[in-house]
Amino acid sequence: MAEAKQKILIVEDDLDVADMLNAYFRAQGYEVFTVNYGEDGIRSCQASQPDIIILDIRLPDIDGYEVARRLRDNRRTADIPIIFLTEKRDRSERLQGLELGADDYITKPFDVQELRLRLRNALRRADQDTLTNPVTGLPDGKLVNERVSECLDKLNWMMIIVSLENLDFFRESYGFVASDDVLRAVSLMIHNARKEIGSQDDFLGHLGPTDFVLITGPERAANLQERIRSRLQQSLDYFYPIKDREQSSYRTKRLVFKMGILQAGDKEYASLDELKLALLRKKQ
């Protein structure tokens, strides 16, 4: 499975600089988004959830400090690394940026190779800190990969995948707060099912932003799957206002879930990616 590209958001009003950085970092293998205004940078950050932001301080509408302040005040964007890019060299300006939680600060004219190394180091630091999902608090990233990888050498396990579909459409209609509430509620229902009929050795985490994986034993898997299915079937409609449940458009792109089970012995998996892909294909 091809590894997803890391995403960079560049907020820079100098079109020549923005185009140069866009071309340079795309050539380095990153996915790049470029905007020229601070307000656009905030909206783009919330929509695309970049892995890192290169943020100019001098912008046509609001300055980079205000952009950083608002991103840090939003739980969804609070932990995204920020590298300030500016012509200002005054120590007080630098301290102001660092007080807002900037991860680094580089002045123009800059060496693009130095910027690349600073960006790489900031991404590495952020990657080491990303062990839980910021919305649900469940294990994510490396922690999940470690537990799934352990199954490659074991013979007595089952994995249940639970995938929440169409959350993006729900978010467009009702906003980030409501969609986060849905994700937390779904995670809590799965967690409670594990707590009630599972084992303390069972593991629950995020396989993806809206994909959950529950690693359990063969003797518990069927009951767990049925308990989770029953609770989700009873609950998803209630996240919508009553007036919207009566609209025909509600039935299209509505919140639904898919589930599947993968068990040891189905086949031998040569790698973590192969095992994760097989689990994702079980969703139905």
Could you write a compact summary of the structure shown?
The chain folds into 2 domains: 7-129, Rossmann fold, CATH 3.40.50; 142-280, Alpha-Beta Plaits (2-Layer Sandwich), CATH 3.30.70.
What does it look like?
- Strands 2-1-3-4-5 form a five-stranded parallel sheet, with helices on both faces. A four-stranded antiparallel sheet has the order 7-8-6-9, with helices on both faces.
- The longest helix has 22 residues, at 176-197.
- Helix 2 runs parallel beside helix 3 (64-73).
- It is built from eleven helices and nine strands.
- The chain folds into two domains: 7-129, Response regulator (Rossmann fold, 3-Layer(aba) Sandwich); 142-280, Reverse transcriptase/Diguanylate cyclase domain (Alpha-Beta Plaits, 2-Layer Sandwich).
- The model has no long low-confidence stretch (mean pLDDT 86).
- The chain starts with 6 loop residues before the first strand and ends with a helix.
- It is of the alpha/beta class.
- The radius of gyration is 22 Å and the shape is globular.
Integer count of domains = 2
Question: How is the biggest beta sheet arranged?
Answer: 5 strands, parallel
The CATH superfamily of the largest domain is known as: Reverse transcriptase/Diguanylate cyclase domain
Order of helices and strands: EHEHEHEHEHHEHHEEHHEH
CATH topology of the largest domain: Alpha-Beta Plaits
Number of strands: 9
Q: CATH top level of the largest domain?
A: Alpha Beta
- Spans of at least 5 consecutive residues with low confidence: none
Oligomer: single chain
Number of helices: 11
* Strand line-up across the major sheet: 2-1-3-4-5
